[in-house]
């Protein structure tokens, strides 16, 4: 139920539209930088490389190199955006299913093929989902903060 709540969070929080908008803007930026970089490179080294203009097929390796560098530079940014949305969907799932132990168990199962406890730098650069440690910690924090839910003796707010 917690995993289903997580997936429902993606839908309810409109993440598909937000990501599509972000990646559309990113694509425009990529092509603008590509156009500027190609024009600058051709003006500087075009004669030496025997490339006449951006329409020359010989410019393709340079375009691939520029796009590869841009992709490498934007990877941590993209990962952070997706990781943030995944964390918010985790919290939505916790709030809807109210099963923090289920979230922690799912995170442990995911640990069979993903590193559970990466370094903070490794997580920020390479992970597009929260690490198992982050997911388990947030589930247990949610559990501690919401122990009053379903408790007739200690209702929330008292």
Helix coverage percent? over 70%
Got a strand count? 0
**Alpha-carbon distance between the termini?**
28 Å
Q: Which outline best applies?
A: elongated
How much of the sequence lies in strands comes to under 5%
Domains (count): 1
Q: What can be said about the biggest beta sheet?
A: none
Which ranges are low-confidence, i.e. pLDDT below 50, for 5 or more consecutive residues?
none
Q: How confident overall, as mean pLDDT?
A: 91
Secondary-structure-based class equals: mainly alpha
Q: What is the element string, with H for helices and E for strands?
A: HHHHHH
Alpha plus pi helix count: 6
Radius of gyration (CA) equals 23 Å
Q: What topology does this entry show?
A:
Layout: H1 2-12, H2 15-49, H3 60-97, H4 100-110, H5 120-126, H6 132-145
Helix pairs in contact: 1-3, 2-3, 3-6, 4-6
Question: Describe it for me?
Answer:
- With 158 residues, this protein is mostly helical.
- It has one domain.
- 73% of the residues lie in helices and 0% in strands.
- The protein has helices at 2-12, 15-49, 60-97, 100-110, 120-126, 132-145.
- The radius of gyration is 23 Å and the shape is elongated.
What are the key terms here?
single chain, about 160 residues, mainly alpha, 6 helices
Offer a quick outline of the entry:
This protein has helices at residues 2-12, 15-49, 60-97, 100-110, 120-126, 132-145. The protein has one domain (2-145).
